[in-house]
Amino acid sequence: MHITEGAPLAEHTTLVVGGRAQVLAEVAGSTAAVVEGLEAVRARTTEPLTLLGEGSNVVVSDAGLPAVLVLRGGEVSDAQEGRETTRVRVDGGMSWDALVAWSVARGLGGLELLSGIPGTVGAAPVQNIAAYGQALADTFVSLEAVDRRTGEVVTFTAADCAFGYRDSRFKRDLADRFVITAVTLDLTHGARSPLRYRDLEVRFAEHGGDPEDLHDRRAAVLAVRRGKSMVWDPADPLSRSCGSFFVSPFLPRDEAIDLVDAVRGAGAGERLFAWYAGAEAEQVKVPAALVLLAAGFANGDRWGPVGLSPRHVLALVNHGGATAQRVADVAAHIQHTAAEQLGVALHAEPRFLGAFEPFDPERFAADVTRTPGEDATPGWARDAVR
Ligand SMILES: Cc1cc2nc3c(=O)[nH]c(=O)nc-3n(C[C@H](O)[C@H](O)[C@H](O)COP(=O)(O)OP(=O)(O)OC[C@H]3O[C@@H](n4cnc5c(N)ncnc54)[C@H](O)[C@@H]3O)c2cc1C
Asked: Looking at ligand 1, which residue's alpha carbon is closest to its atom 20?
């Protein structure tokens, strides 16, 4: 365990914003280490404690936070081979992508399309991470967590977690109550989940490879994600983000069709929702990227140091020197515009931690200038759906 006072939290987040932590404890590995870390922080301060993994889905306030526990580092602690699946138990602090690489190297399926998602294994159940048609919930068996109030170790099944789209109870009634210290997953030996995403089909068509092979799937996903700066890489300034900033809203089918047609042309909405919602669904999930485009935003738009990624319109990027408050204001401006112009409520995916000024649309309009993206949104970005 490592404890510091006054640590800059920007260094612990992929958006690279945020003030300092009065007390910050870094722990790795086992449940026992987490219990020890919680006790060490408590011995120094009674202020509210914030838990972080790799900081890839948070916006930390410029004012900082009083007490932070960072859980990073760990390994696959057990693997039991069954007839059709191998059951693995993984430390909460292990890097998610290191787990995916481990599983692919052993021929185990179920995680390969989740390659390149930043963050820790322990944070993955919080929003039921998902990409390209795979979700954590598909392989999830159970998790172990320490109750921050009592120090008790508790086991949660999938039903206990109530996973949804970018959602679980750890975002709602159980937020800030548990530290997830281990996750157990069932990984498949033979079966492969279907490849349904156009980006991946195009990648295989243009670069070859076997769409059923786990290594080729992982390579294709990483290449597509890197093309959108959706792999956290300190050498890629466009990855200085939280990934997609808004979750895709559910809308009545007719409204959703109109919205998609406005961006992609007549007939596009029917085709899109027949593909992924079925012909009957009355409420359909509209890609948040299309909501932004329909509301008049474009790839590359900037408000000073904060902008929409030229490669992935849904990502708010810190182009250098951004404050957390500016990120919050730009996000609120986008939400305000989508609500005013389209009547659509957009919800932020990352968690805002600490104190922020409330959004004032008039002050924002007066003080902040928008620089439109230099190029119009490219077709492949307009078509990209995550
Ligand atoms: C470039 C980029 C691309 C991304 N792409 C995707 C994507 O394709 N799909 C997707 O679903 N997400 C994506 N994300 C979001 C992010 O990677 C995930 O949400 C990830 O699971 C966050 O992990 P973390 O360790 O960084 O959590 P943090 O950001 O540190 O924390 C997020 C929340 O989880 C809580 N938390 C963290 N660790 C634990 C724990 N051990 N126990 C309990 N609670 C905990 C924190 O308190 C906080 O509320 C992307 C992010 C980036 C930067």
From this structure: 119
